[in-house]
Design goal:
Helices cover about 45% and strands about 15% of the residues. By secondary structure, it is of the alpha/beta class. The chain has a domain of about 200 residues: Alpha/Beta hydrolase fold, catalytic domain (Rossmann fold, 3-Layer(aba) Sandwich). Helix 3 links the parallel strand 5 and strand 6.
């Protein structure tokens, strides 16, 4: 059974209240979710608590926090500032940040903009498409990408056609269920989506208002090679062996740019790596963090 919100506390930062759950003592490890909420870390919280101070929180607009109001664009920069404020409010800085998907992008930007608050990064398939194109991409950007990185360009185009485009269209016509299905199938791959547990599907549906605001908003913030190179921290990049090619390509580019990075592929896993194969992911995570723990 999936974890509930049992044992959560609340902290107020930047005008919003964020739910979080804390276990264990030691160096803080803060878990930043993607298109879900803190429940996605059910397999990691107790495992981390044996040696670390585990803090899983729900980003603004994610359950059980207040929903986003209709018409508001859910942009990433406020989430970055929320994370920085949370680290300070909980006296958890500098922290090891573990970010999944959209939350991985948030964690990376936090390291760029608040270097002193971060000790290391674990980034699970962050969608750093804005390293290459704006969102939505301009035709000239796609043409340049086709010339310079044709396989990546093909993956970006496919992702837009099969996932983002259909999800946006469905949201605009008010069919939220179809939108969430299109988005989830595109991000996970159709086989992984078909095997997704009912509980995980419900978690995504619980947070569909935030997903809608993100997909219909202004897109990802700009990210430059120089900014990524400035993150002189230990970084573990994690990809699922069965994830769509786009995430592998983006992670390889991050590995090229990040000066102190390593990349780990988790077998029998797609985009939600920490849920698909928690034993293998936890082993890699604890090894990485253990090697960087201060004695």
């Amino acid at each position: 059974m999936p974890a509930s919100f049992e044992g959560t506390k609340a902290v107020s930062v930047n005008g919003v209240t964020l739910a979080y759950r804390e276990q264990g003592v030691g160096e803080p490890v803060v878990l930043v979710h993607g298109a879900s909420d803190l429940r996605i870390w059910e397999h990691q919280e107790a495992a981390l608590a044996y040696a670390f101070r585990s803090i899983a929180y729900s980003r603004r607009y994610a359950r059980p926090n207040a929903d986003i109001e209709p018409g508001i664009d859910d942009q990433m920069p406020p989430h970055v500032e929320d994370l920085a404020a949370l680290l300070n409010a909980l006296r958890a800085a500098p922290a090891h940040l573990v970010g999944h998907s959209w939350g991985g992008f948030v964690a990376l930007l936090t390291a760029v903009r608040h270097r002193n608050l971060v000790r290391s990064l674990v980034l699970i398939e962050p969608p750093v498409i804005s390293l290459f194109v704006s969102t939505p991409p301009k035709p000239t950007e796609i043409l340049w990408l086709l010339v310079t990185r044709p396989s990546l360009a093909a993956s970006v185009i496919k992702f837009g056609i099969t996932a983002i485009g259909p999800a946006q269209q469905a949201f605009r016509r008010g069919d939220d269920e179809a939108a969430v299905q299109a988005f989830s199938a595109g991000v996970l791959g159709r086989d992984a989506f078909a095997n997704m547990s009912p509980a995980r599907r419900q978690q995504v549906r619980d947070n569909e208002k935030a997903i809608r605001a993100q997909l219909l908003g202004a897109g990802f913030p700009a990210l430059t090679d120089r900014e990524v190179r400035s993150v002189d921290l230990p970084v573990m990049l994690v990809v699922g062996a069965n994830s769509p090619p786009l995430f592998h390509q983006l992670s390889r580019r991050l590995q090229e740019l990040l000066p102190r990075s390593e990349r780990v592929t988790i077998a029998n896993a797609s985009h939600i790596v920490q849920d698909d194969n928690p034993a293998a992911f936890n082993e890699a995570l604890l090894t990485f963090l253990g090697n960087r723990r201060r004695i």
